[in-house]
Write a structure and sequence with these properties.
Number of domains: 3
Strand content: 25-35%
Largest sheet: 7 strands, antiparallel
Order of helices and strands: EHEEHEHEHHEEEHEEEEHEEHHEE
Structural class: alpha+beta
Radius of gyration: 19 Å
Number of helices: 9
Strand order of the largest sheet: 14-13-10-11-12-15-16
Helix content: 25-40%
Number of strands: 16
Length: 335
């Protein structure tokens, strides 16, 4: 099988724009971890899109280098005979992930990610929460932000289709409201949620035809800089004793959104009382993916390709430890 790896940030998606430093290190982490996993699989021919401004990764693979001025969609139309399947990693912002899913589907390529239907839903945080809530899945209360009112209490205001912590703000005072409202973009849709005390967590899971296969739970380490949340690190594979609870939660999500496929990240708050409240669904690789091999000894890419061949994933652990990923420098180490 010939697989094209297209990580949007490092793969030329922004070839005529400045590279966003806030997302670049996470992009490297995900891309490099995926390449390492795919290189372990026999009978795989690997092609990787490469923005010439970014750093390559080691391995026996073919780089498709994108230079400034290249129209990426046109280039990929010309190169489509070189690959059979695509592993796409892209932000949901402005429909980018959905647009490229549609592009490669039009080429009749196999996607190692969720379907267009799932991506279209999950890129809209508010509609995702409505869908899950209607199915009985507990979520953080979420509403469209319309009026420029300064609500009392502590609130989280976020772009409805942003990626990561981009445009995710914590509002605790009149000063915070004034500072953040001045930054909001008229073209964007925003949602508002009550700030709920607890741990910022995520679940790594595989999905296939309405079934869920829980991999691990991860803790997100956040700090606030000028009212905005910033992800500084994540610890992969924590709270293993709650695996049964997390599997049930993933299964509930699979039943609500059966179009989810392959690796998916689920962000949630675990409250001080232990309740899990969903924040959003990421239908693609997440930063936590980069630590799963070291934490559990499982090659997730192998398991995704098993799913693509209608085979059950094998999630047998050959090791078990917590792994901390520092986002700023990309260092991965045992906790």
């Amino acid at each position: 099988m010939r697989i094209l790896v297209f990580e949007f940030i490092t793969g030329g998606g922004l070839i005529d724009q400045a590279l966003p430093q806030s997302l670049l290190q996470e992009a490297y982490l995900m891309r490099n971890a995926l390449i390492d996993d795919l290189l372990e699989i026999p009978n795989i021919e690997l092609l990787v899109l490469h923005d010439k401004r970014t750093t390559m990764h080691n391995g026996d693979l073919q780089w498709l280098t994108i230079d400034q001025g290249v129209v990426l969609a046109r280039y990929l139309q010309e190169m489509q005979s070189l690959y059979d399947a695509v592993w796409l990693i892209a932000p949901e912002t402005d429909g980018i992930l959905l647009q490229w899913c549609q592009f490669f589907s039009a080429q009749a390529k196999s996607l190692c990610t969720s379907s267009e239907v799932a991506v279209a839903l999950c890129q809209d945080k508010l509609q995702t929460i409505k869908c899950l809530s209607a199915a009985g899945v507990a979520c953080v209360p979420t509403h469209a932000y319309i009026e420029p009112a300064q609500e009392q209490g502590h609130w989280v205001l976020k772009n409805n289709n942003s990626v990561g912590c981009d445009e995710v703000y914590l509002l605790r005072s009149v000063h915070d409201w004034k500072a953040v409202l001045a930054r909001l973009k008229a073209s964007n849709v925003y949602i508002i949620q009550p700030y709920i005390k607890g741990k910022a967590m995520s679940l790594s899971c595989l999905f296939y035809q309405g079934e869920a296969y829980f991999i691990c739970c991860n803790e997100q380490h956040l700090q606030i800089e000028q009212q905005q949340f910033v992800l500084t690190a994540c610890t992969v594979h924590v709270q293993a004793e709650q695996a049964k609870q997390y599997q049930q939660l993933c299964s509930s999500i699979a039943a609500a959104i059966p179009e989810l496929f392959a690796y998916v990240g689920i962000d949630f708050i675990q409250t001080e009382s232990g309740e899990c409240l969903i924040l959003e669904i990421n239908p693609r690789l997440t930063s936590s993916y980069a630590g799963i091999k070291a934490a559990l000894g499982i090659n997730i890419a192998t398991q995704v390709l098993r799913l693509a061949n209608n085979e059950q994933p094998i999630l047998t652990k050959s090791t078990e430890q917590s792994i901390r990923i520092n986002i700023n420098n990309g260092i991965i180490h045992a906790r």
